[in-house]
Structures
1.
Amino acid sequence: MDGLGGAIAATAAGLLEAAARQDLRLAVAESLTGGQVAASLVAVPGASRVLMGGVVAYATRIKAEVLGVDAQRLERTGPVDAVVAIQMAEGAARIMGAEVGLATTGVAGPGPADGHEAGQVHIAVVAPGASAHRELRLAGDRDRVREGAVEAVLLLAREMLDTSAGADGSAPAGEP
């Protein structure tokens, strides 16, 4: 596979390797990506060593009822929000017993939704002692926005695990 698909596959494989080295389990919560993050991870042989599962929370009420996103926050901001993305990642990790949670939420298009332009995306990753969020403005059609969100959340998770492990892949100082 080449192009963006190849980059996603390579990033997914690297993330799974980093999680396995650190004995961490992954869980995914997805909205606009509709399962593509989990599918990208599952496509890598051996993913079951660290991937616990994923929740596609496409409907706003599922974000609250299943993932535990603050319902009042959802009413106030809607689902395209930094805090919502972080809470989705936390919820996925919690319900699946994983140390690392990844989340995507946003508008894939083709047009705007809930006052947000197509391509506005929030991704989040939570890990032991850390969380990270990025707001993205992705260009292109619906497929390109979704693929861009998948690539971005996998990269963010990989960066977080690489940072927590140190440049050589070993555990941080003071940890086994």
2.
Amino acid sequence: MSFLKRAAVAATAAVIVSAGLFAGPADAAAAKPAVVVDYGSAKVVTKVKPKTIRPYKDVSYTSVHWTKLTGSTGYATAVRKVNTCVPDCATGKVKSDKVSLKFTRVRKASNHRNVFTRVRVTVIKTHKVTTHALPTSVS
């Protein structure tokens, strides 16, 4: 193969890779929906399979263990920590429960990333189920 043909092949490969036409493992992971990790952050912080999620001021999910993640749903177990705000939020106690989580309803976040916008929370001990909206931006 002549020098010019080799140079043309190398240039074509570089264009394909830089244009994003070559899908590698990083691209496949980026296609998975993320979660807005911390509503209180100054910017939208999204992560795929985060270990901690703080969707609201007085609620957090820690020790998040992801069991399944697809383009439209995610399943995990976690410890939910809720500030009871009794007698007030500054001195309130934190109540912890083991929960299972089902993430659904994928939408674009304010940082243009696909994120889950709904979570179904099932308390493992009592089987009580609640559904909550998840933030897609910060205020």
3.
Amino acid sequence: MAQTKHRIFNDYRDLFWSLIPLVLAAVVLAGVASQCTVATNGPTQGQIPFFDADAALTSDAKTLSFPIRKPALPQGWVSNSGSRDTIAAAGGGAVSTVGYITPQGTYMRYSQTDATEEALSRQELGSRYPNGTREVAGQTWVVYSEPTEETGWIADLGGVRILITGAGNEAAFTTLATAITAAAPLSR
């Protein structure tokens, strides 16, 4: 008759040796079912969602009471999102926003509104305060920044305030600001 150890004499080595066959069986089954892969080149960018910025901005130009601009951006800027919102606070108004993925893969967006700069900055930028200006294509942009937050640039283009935010570098902000400043308002 085979002798078995009493439970009191079992230790962690026994547990370890009894789990090895179970782990090996799980790995083999997962491999056979193609549920395990080994990535050697890191994460890859997925497909950028399509957003028809032309149609959205044309619609906004016809329905909103302030001038709407559609910037002519360089090749590689892809519109991927958009929205329409309202700032309900004092000095607020309607907001039209379009987002882009830059050729470097960063996200940038710009919002157009008839709200005051103060109402726009409080709604969209929270606790960030102006701490400088940038002169781009003859237009002064007020820069709102904070070390741990995205930077925001706001300009008053006569009847409309423009806000640019995003994860892009200074060149991306300058490219978008230049294109917006050069764009004529769309026809109503």
